[in-house]
Design a protein that fits this description.
Radius of gyration: 38 Å
Order of helices and strands: HHEE
Oligomer: single chain
Shape: rod-shaped
Largest sheet: 2 strands, antiparallel
Structural class: alpha+beta
Helix content: 40-55%
Strand content: 15-25%
Length: 97
């Protein structure tokens, strides 16, 4: 809303500065400059209004998400029981928290 109001104030200032009072007009001069200034002002105002309308769509905001940290893993040498003879041997085993 703040953008729209500031855009309208700027557009009003631009259009107001481009228009001269009726008493200051002199019909003996060519009005080409005023026509060009009016076209530029209309383009600026149209661009501001069109930009405000184009940017007024819905906003999608992702809330904070909890991301589970990856497990901390390391390798250890552990005694592992043999299947066949009941004894033990040492194997390197991956251990995770």
């Amino acid at each position: 809303m703040k953008r729209i109001i500031s855009s309208l104030l700027i557009a009003t200032a631009l259009v107001g500065s481009a228009i001269q009072p009726a008493a200051a007009r002199d019909r003996h001069h060519d009005d080409t400059g005023r026509i060009i200034a009016g076209g530029v002002a209309a383009g600026v105002v149209g661009g501001l209004i069109g930009g405000a309308i184009a940017n007024s769509g819905p906003r999608y905001i992702d809330g904070p998400r909890y991301v589970e940290p990856a497990p901390r893993c390391w390798y250890e040498d552990r005694d592992v029981r043999n299947r066949y003879d009941g004894g033990y041997h040492v194997e390197t085993v991956r251990v995770c928290d």
